[in-house]
Please model this.
Amino acid sequence: RNEKLYVNRTEGFAGTGLKKDEYVGDCADIDDMIVFRKNGTYVITKVADKVFVGKDVIHIAVFSKNDERTIYNCAYADGDTGNTYVKRFAVKGITRDKEYDVTKGAPNSKILYFTENPNGEAEIIKVTLKPKPRIKKLNFEFDFSTLEIKGRASQGNILTKYAIHKIVIKEKGLSTLGGRRIWYDASVMRLNTEERGMYLGEFSGADQIIVFTQSGNFNLHSFDLSTYFEDDIILIEKYNAERIYTVAFWEGEQNFYYLKRFQIVEGDKPDRFVGEHPNSKFYSICTDTRPRLELSFGGKYKNRPAEIIDAEEFIGVKSFKARGKRLSTYDIAQITALEPIIQEEKLIEFEVFNAKTNTEITFDKDEKAEQTSLDL
Model:
């Protein structure tokens, strides 16, 4: 994506050359863009320097062909009957530069509420009606998850037959499509669902991707397929607040190798995990439960036997901002990751009371499962 897309909603122009107008997102010069207007019409057209896409633009984005996960939720007023309809639909692929309609096509129809949901999220909205005699309830809620996802030409369901004053979102929703399986393709530094590259996991809702870079920074990203990633990634995976990272790095202020262990907790903003000193440099990162490191020495200590460090015993888990602990007082020539320590599970004794015999039965965790099938 070597270009940036902009839009002027009032005048109805969009393109890569409108640098003084509203920024939409990154794009490539071969991309298409999808544009929805307030009157209910929408069009897909090729990205250009400047193109007229119609006035009263309510939504514009880079279009992905055959995208079954992006679901549009909308409410529109029908110009013929006056009813307000709600619908959920996907736009998988249509003829470029041909106008389509979200509404039934009647004159004076208009969209009252519209959201784009990259993973099929379904929110709850609050509807306020215009005051009118005999209307007792002017406010009510509607949950989009109760609607089926249908074709873009579907009429939708009636939300109300009365005139609407406003519609606002009350509660953001979760995906109604289930988790999305995501891969990362390092050759193009992009996410995909076509099983290219490294599998990151199944994502839904507020799940995130964490990235560590050679420059010593970490960042949290959404799993939006259009997300841009850094070009010096050393570790990329699905974010897990319980994950412990063990990092060896050169501490620029003290000029020694240090070790630190930390977790990235929710609320941590993107930052340097090797310290603020400009000469600090990343060396290695490990996510094993009990990692081990072998230190080989150099200089006048080159004949000194290698030393093995058990990271869990060497230093506790602290904040990523902590300096850490110096690995050795001797000159280190090389740090090698060894096989982690695999903790053997301890035998756990269970005491089960048998009501029939009025006795206690004791057995350990390793005994066969059939022994737990007791008539209690």
